[in-house]
Amino acid sequence: MRKLNIAGQTVPAVGIGTWHMGNDTEKHDEEVAAIRTGIEAGARAIDTAEVYGDGKSETLVGEALKPFNRDDIFLISKVKPDNASKAVMEQHLDASLKRLQTDHLDLYLYHWRGSIPLEETVAELDRLRETGKIRSWGVSNFDIPDMQELVALPAGGNVAANEDLYNIESRGVEYDLLPWQRERHIPLIAYSPVGGLANDLKTSMLQDATVRQVAQRHGVSTYELLIAWAVRDGNTLVIPQTSNPEHMRANIGAAGIELTDEDLAQLDKRYPAPTHRIPLDVD
Fold first, then answer.
1. Are residues 87 and 123 in contact, defined by beta-carbon separation less than 8 angstroms?
2. Is the pTM for the entire model greater than 0.70?
3. Predicted local confidence at residue 1, as pLDDT
4. SS3 for 220?
5. What are the DSSP E strand ranges found in the chain?
6. 3-270: what CATH class?
7. Which of 86, 93, 104, 143 sits a CA distance of 20 to 30 A from 132?
8. What's the CA angle centered on 93, arms 57 and 63, to 5 degrees?
9. What is the pLDDT of residues 34-56, one digit of tens each?
């Protein structure tokens, strides 16, 4: 099973995303079962955010984690831009910790850039790291100019990860952002590795003939194949979301799929790597 190092911890390269989970009470039991199935299948990283369902996702995750040893879980949540100030960030972190039923996060992300000065947000994230309420901090939806500005700040070198949209149809980050992050040992957390909810009507990759052919060669679904593709570099954590326990088990198992040079060449021909800078995709 492919793994990577993130914030000083080694975790399997496929984790659990929870965007849009916790909103539907009729799906509650299935969603709890899906998260637990993922952990039992080997997942360790779980990604959520205060903005997901106004805290309902965090509450769901907190319940789902009850049977497990907290030290075995790499727990990620995010602060939304309006709450990323020195004045209020800690109280929003405390609210997230309460919903998650834990005393710390392994990684706390600044969800996207807002109007609060980046230097203020980074200084407060680093202060919270020193309190022990978060073990590390990072950012989300940051492109290379944002990252360059970030690391130039006094505490910016402590950034542990950047979470961006990344999949075989959306490879723009490969041109400059991913090489830049690799040089600095800053892993990517990839959301929407098989397409985001907002892009479901536009995506073709799940039904694409080339993707299907490579998936069939490995005896896996196109979902599993695309997840395996996204983690092929050993520096990426992907966080696919599903409320279906069986689908969750398959997602986590995709970390064990080894793509050949032939597979990668065939997929690259169908979905070429970028040859110029492309603005960051956001879902």
1. no
2. yes
3. 87
4. coil
5. 3-6, 9-12, 16-17, 45-47, 74-79, 107-110, 137-140, 159-165, 188-191, 236-238
6. alpha beta
7. 143
8. 35
9. 999 999 999 999 999 999 999 99
